[in-house]
Predict the structure of LacI family transcriptional regulator.
Amino acid sequence: MRKAATIRDVAHAAAVSTATVSKFVNGGQRFSREVEARITAAIQQLGYRTNPLARGMITGRTGNLGIVIMDIRNPHFTSFVKGASRAAAEAGMNLLFADAAESRAPELALLQALLPQVDGLIVSARMPVAVVEWLREWARKPVVFYGGLAPRPGLHSVGCDNHASGLMLGRHLRELGHRRISYVGFGAAPWSKDRWEGLRAAFQGTKASLQCFDVPAPVAEEGERIASSVLLDAQTPEAVVAYNDLLALGLMAEARALGFRVPQQVSIAGFDNIAYGRYTTPSLTSVDTGSEATGEAAARHLLGLLAGESDLALHETIATRLVPRDSTAARGSGSGKP
Amino acid sequence: MRKAATIRDVAHAAAVSTATVSKFVNGGQRFSREVEARITAAIQQLGYRTNPLARGMITGRTGNLGIVIMDIRNPHFTSFVKGASRAAAEAGMNLLFADAAESRAPELALLQALLPQVDGLIVSARMPVAVVEWLREWARKPVVFYGGLAPRPGLHSVGCDNHASGLMLGRHLRELGHRRISYVGFGAAPWSKDRWEGLRAAFQGTKASLQCFDVPAPVAEEGERIASSVLLDAQTPEAVVAYNDLLALGLMAEARALGFRVPQQVSIAGFDNIAYGRYTTPSLTSVDTGSEATGEAAARHLLGLLAGESDLALHETIATRLVPRDSTAARGSGSGKP
DNA sequence: TTGTATGCGTTATCAC
DNA sequence: GTGATAACGCATACAA
């Protein structure tokens, strides 16, 4: 097994200088027919590929985009990564991936490990403020936050309008005649509050009563765990809205296990419109937050920043849309047997 | 904004040579109290971090592990990535991620882009043979295949025993009294056949009749699409086994839409034990293929290869386990209303 | 225990 | 058009 060919090998084989080969490889210059042919042949024959590390040393570019995900098992983030992956691939960039939940190191160490290997970063807007400050001060590379607004003004971000999304879902429930609503939030994400306030806004002027709960992690297990507290509360809710679909899935399963009929006795809804909401019984009403589109937008935004585009908005808003399914209905309606 | 500190800056600030700083940073040598203190202080004050690109040029190591996933939206692969991510993080390595389904480039180009940026690769065993050959010849870096056995002998791989898994599920169905079984396979994955043969083996010596179908992609939509062909076939199956849980999810949804009662009229089961199988109605019987453990094992195996461990088995087998749930039952049993 | 010198593979600058 | 050469930031053999 021989070592990989270098630019010098090519230069030698083609009887030109390394500088010429470099210019040829990177395009943007004209060459004599002769030289062009020789270089092409040499590259072909030696199987030469330019070493991105060496190039990076000079240009300061790695060809990688860094992406830090809070928990890849959440289908919302999975789709997000998929969208970002597509945009990166189209631009010829690689994706350097880190799962914050899996790293035993604190977020800061994680970013420090990622940073020197990437040209820019896509990170969650629910990063600790101290980490964001560090990024702002030390990362001389563009950063795009996702989820909600960046934790500090002046930073780039991509996400949906969470207040509007909450409002949208709230109106849906209001139209169904629900008046006792419980929200199971995830306080660690700042925009959980936005969803909650949007929800409340939808009931402004009505005699509706809204309650707020909170879970320590936005996962199905927590939804199951908190279900009894929510449903057997002094105020029995007519509708339960969860911060995301995973929580909603857990809530719904446990609600049924507790003997509640969904949606006849209690409507349940979430956010994100994950694929599996279609396959539950009843199927899950949700607000589609454009997971994949958000990932794609985040990557494109970052690429724009890298390209030096100056007309980039600080925040990019992704459209959301209500996806009404069977888990929400006017009380007592339907047969309960699909 | 000042540029990032280099080893020279540190050396200068500490009044030592760059070589000394390098040795200090990379450990494995003793220093005088004095020098140690000065270097530590300088590093601290300048916020120095060694540049992995520059280091990589010398050592030939990037600090990255490459991972090529067929479709990150499949929860099986998501868990796989999670496991690999954990193992990589523990070893202080980053994960360079690529989604083959999202790349418009052919697999080969994808690998070529990844290869120079990583120390080793984790790739699906269902890569085209031509690509594997190329890898074998040109990638002078260790590769670990996942899913099933490597496409060529002599290559490292990690995966479960697919034949045994099929057998396990087959016995379960046999014990439930089923005799007309349909398998919805995914021929593009070579081990789909292993599952099928394991399934068949479970019914050897009985008068059972087994049918085989095939889908072009192992996703829920394909399960829905093929459901009517499978269920309304000349031989109405008592049980349908799908290549994976996504297919099973789609099959089950469509089966119910077609008016079939699951599991009273037809049992349905899959492979992988994805999290969402718990939240369907009925909950989905599956064979847990140890998705996350496989990812972790693949990464560890790769790390072992990188560390030059010589006692590494060529193939590592991950344990599987049957997870019986409500979607499989003896015919006519149960009430159908949980 | 510490320092000197060299080279990793590439691009950029400037000369020809 | 093409070539010489100096960086880029670091690790390592070897010298002291």
In short: Residues 53 and 62 of chain B are 7 Å apart (CA to CA).
